[in-house]
Write a structure and sequence with these properties.
Elements lengths: L1 H14 L9 E7 L4 E9 L9 E3 L5 E2 L4 E5 L2 E9 L8 E5 L9 E6 L6 E5 L5 E3 L9 H15 L1 H14 L2 H23 L7 H21 L5 H4 L1 H23 L6 H30 L8 H24 L1
Parallel strand pairs: 1-8
Antiparallel strand pairs: 1-2, 2-6, 3-7, 4-6, 5-6, 7-10, 8-9
Keywords: Membrane, Signal, Transmembrane, Transmembrane helix
Protein name: HupE/UreJ family protein
Organism: Croceibacterium salegens
Length: 324
């Protein structure tokens, strides 16, 4: 029990610094006339307006006017038009964030006039995004499978929720059933939202995701009891999974679904999330196995309370931040 609590505490170390990794900077480049580009970028609405970065036009290109700023319900935007005498292939885009801005991941959607659309994913903290010299030849399924795995591993709030489920499920078998239920549930709303059949305010979704972590933290702090959460954690996973699916859909919408192979892309992205969750669970259990060989520290109930309160306080901060 105490080893599980220590693992949750270890999970908090990167969380404080990278709480917004799963809400990336979205950057789009559209080519109108040959050689003329409209570049727009957006940070999520849960961040502050001053956190919009300055984005430099690719080397060898010339801006057609000053950059502009605006905002709407989706977030805070920046934009600039520029011209290039040659292709953007092999060039780079630079990002300059103001001091104090979180290390966001970056999703670039490139729409050339006469070539296929390209999606580029840069990891959190990368301030230079290279445009490939030629379009990636990775097939559609593998591309969205990789994006699903990368998203769940950079989504600290989703991982903390999964960690809470592991804590309550406690065994490999119950954890596998619980995580699978979570995946099935969020897959339903992800597909419905990605297809435009159901919509939900992004800010409310992010706040409820944080609330789901608070709920698990409270349950863990109170300890095992004869409640539905402890008897059947899969029901809790599936209930909150419906709302987590809207969060996954928001990122998938920023990545962009292909016009052809839509079902394949959705299936691969969901499978990538499931594989990422299973890999995370395997890491947690491996850490616990290693920690179990070390001398136990402190009273189990006390360590459990510290871990639960630490997670709950962090998630509460995220919740109020996202509501504001």
């Amino acid at each position: 029990m105490r080893m599980l609590c220590l693992a949750l505490l270890l999970a908090l170390v990167p969380a404080a610094a990278r709480a917004d990794d799963n809400r990336p900077l979205a950057l789009t480049l559209d080519e109108g006339k040959p050689g003329e580009w409209d570049m727009r970028w957006r940070v999520p609405a849960n961040l502050a307006a001053y956190m919009v970065p300055e984005v430099g036009v690719p080397e060898g290109c010339e801006p057609l006017g000053p950059s502009r700023r605006w905002s709407d319900e989706l977030g805070y935007w920046g934009g600039v038009r520029f011209t290039c005498s040659a292709s953007l292939a092999g060039k780079s885009i630079t990002l300059a964030y103001p001091r104090g801005a979180p290390p966001l991941a970056t999703i670039v959607r490139l729409h050339p006039a006469r070539e296929e659309e390209e999606t580029i994913l840069a990891q959190p903290g990368e301030l230079t995004v290279a445009i490939p010299a030629k379009p990636a030849d990775e097939n559609l399924f593998l591309r969205f499978l990789r994006l699903g795995v990368e998203h769940i591993w950079t989504g600290i709030d989703h991982l903390l929720f999964v960690a809470g489920l592991i804590f309550i499920a406690r065994t490999w078998r119950r954890t596998a059933v619980t995580i699978t239920g979570f995946t099935i549930s969020h897959s339903i709303t992800l597909a419905l939202a990605a297809l435009g059949l159901v919509t939900f305010p992004p800010g409310a979704v992010e706040a409820v995701i944080a609330l789901s972590i608070v709920f698990l933290a409270v349950e863990i702090a109170k300890g095992p009891r004869d409640t539905l959460t402890w008897r059947r954690p899969v029901f809790v996973a599936m209930s909150f999974g419906l709302l987590h699916g809207f969060g996954f859909a928001a990122v998938l919408g920023q990545i962009g679904l292909p016009k052809e192979g839509l079902v394949t892309a959705l299936l691969a992205f969901n499978l990538g999330i499931e594989l990422g969750q299973v890999a995370f669970a395997a890491v947690v259990f491996a850490v616990l196995h290693g920690l179990a060989r070390l001398p136990a520290l402190g009273h189990p109930q006390r360590v459990q309370g510290i871990a639960a309160y630490a997670v709950g306080i962090l998630a509460s901060y995220w919740m109020f931040e996202r509501i504001a």
